[in-house]
Amino acid sequence: MTRVLILCTHNSARSQMAEALTREAARKVGLDLEVHSAGTEATRVKDDAKTVMAEIGLNLDGHTSKTLYDVPDPQNFDYVVTVCDSAAEACPVYPGRTTRLHYPFMDPSGGSLDRWRAVRDQLAEQFTAFVQALEAGQPVPPAYQAGPAVHVA
């Protein structure tokens, strides 16, 4: 089984959405993937993240904000993906077999629901491509492959 960890600063929005989206993309293609998310510090899962994920049928109600040390076997992941620059800088060193990736996304916090939806959709596109590459036995995207720029308040 392939293990994936998605890291952000507070594990309250982007990493939580990416975790659910990655897990769902893997489920759809029948890929045996263990997905976790964590933050460099724990806070709470933001209500706007729950709202925009519920709009696409994914429930974050059972999700909790956690740190790297709250996930099972925190030093044993095949892929560690940071989704914000702060987490990329604070990310600990991993053994040689771990592939570290950085897919930075805009922080939707404080923005409109349209901004949250835009970030959710960008996360969905990127992490679906990640899962599809794994499923096909192809190299995963090495960096965030942004679609058209989204400028919403």
Automatic annotation (TrEMBL):
Pfam families: LMWPc (PF01451)
SMART domains: LMWPc
Domain Phosphotyrosine protein phosphatase I: 2-133
Keyword Amino-acid biosynthesis attributed: no
Alphabetized UniProt keyword annotations: Arsenical resistance
SUPFAM superfamilies: Phosphotyrosine protein phosphatases I
Signal peptide: none
InterPro entries: Ptyr_pPase, Ptyr_pPase_sf
Entry superkingdom: Bacteria
Gene Ontology BP terms: response to arsenic-containing substance
Segments crossing the lipid bilayer: none
PANTHER family reported for this sequence: ARSENATE REDUCTASE (PTHR43428)
Name of the featured protein: Protein tyrosine phosphatase
